[in-house]
Q: What sequence folds into this?
């Protein structure tokens, strides 16, 4: 078995065991669909109680690294998280850090601008007709004057997710998870009352128009205007630079 069983200290045994198994999974020593030893076998090899093993396995299951199956061929197996599941985990962790005030609004906007600018350049080259259709659909939702504040904010998030997706770079899309799925909603929570929907829709419409003609420079210019306006709105509502407010719900 490719798990290291020694080197434990007396405190936090379940946490240490879960980390050792997690390392074996991430290092590839335990392959996807590999069957783990039974609780009894793990308890014996780690020289701990079965309740400690159960707690360690619960930690791994919470990270979607293992799954259990009942029956004669059952047991505990290594699982492969989907990209969306992994993205959701990153976004959840980022949301927690936001609620603790670990990110400043200026830093969030700066990071989003850098990441989305890179995505925009790639999207100008790689976008498909389907990508354009998705962006236009989200733009239509943004421009809907009858939409609620929650719907408007949700459309804003979906638009930027679609923009990054149009770059067709899975690693970049994954990197955007915390910024778009968690940090953008926090900004929306603070500034949505100060934003003029027509202005937001017009700014992002220019991004889409430029992507339609594959004009990367024009798309980047329009996106820069969007982020400049967003920064001004943060100042206009009198927020401190630190994101200390905990969202009551995830506004899009």
A:
């Amino acid at each position: 078995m490719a798990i290291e069983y020694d080197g434990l200290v007396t405190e936090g045994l379940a946490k240490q065991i879960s980390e050792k198994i997690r390392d074996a999974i991430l290092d590839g020593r335990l392959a996807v669909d590999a069957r783990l030893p039974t609780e009894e076998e793990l308890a014996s090899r780690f020289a701990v109680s079965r309740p400690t093993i159960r707690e360690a396995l619960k930690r791994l299951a919470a990270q979607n690294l293992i799954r259990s199956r009942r029956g004669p061929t059952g047991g505990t197996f290594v699982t492969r998280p989907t990209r969306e599941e992994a993205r959701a985990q990153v976004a959840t962790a980022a949301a927690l850090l936001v609620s603790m005030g670990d990110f400043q609004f200026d830093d969030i906007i700066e990071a989003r601008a850098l990441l989305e600018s890179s995505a925009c350049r790639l999207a100008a080259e790689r976008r498909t007709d389907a990508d354009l259709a998705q962006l236009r659909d989200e733009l239509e939702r943004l421009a809907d004057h009858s939409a609620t504040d929650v719907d408007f904010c949700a459309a804003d998030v979906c638009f930027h997710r679609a923009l990054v997706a149009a770059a067709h770079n899975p690693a970049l899309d994954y990197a955007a998870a915390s910024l778009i799925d968690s940090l953008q909603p926090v900004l929306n929570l603070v500034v949505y009352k100060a934003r003029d929907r027509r202005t937001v829709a017009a700014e992002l419409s220019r991004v889409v128009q430029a992507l339609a003609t594959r004009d990367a420079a024009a798309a980047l210019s329009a996106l820069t205007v969007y982020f400049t306006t967003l920064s001004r709105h943060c100042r206009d509502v009198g927020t401190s630079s630190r994101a200390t407010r905990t969202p009551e719900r995830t506004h899009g």
Notes: The domain at 84-236 is CATH 1.20.120.530 (Four Helix Bundle (Hemerythrin (Met), subunit A)). Residues 240-252 have pLDDT under 50 and may be disordered. Residues 70 and 76 are 9 Å apart (CA to CA).
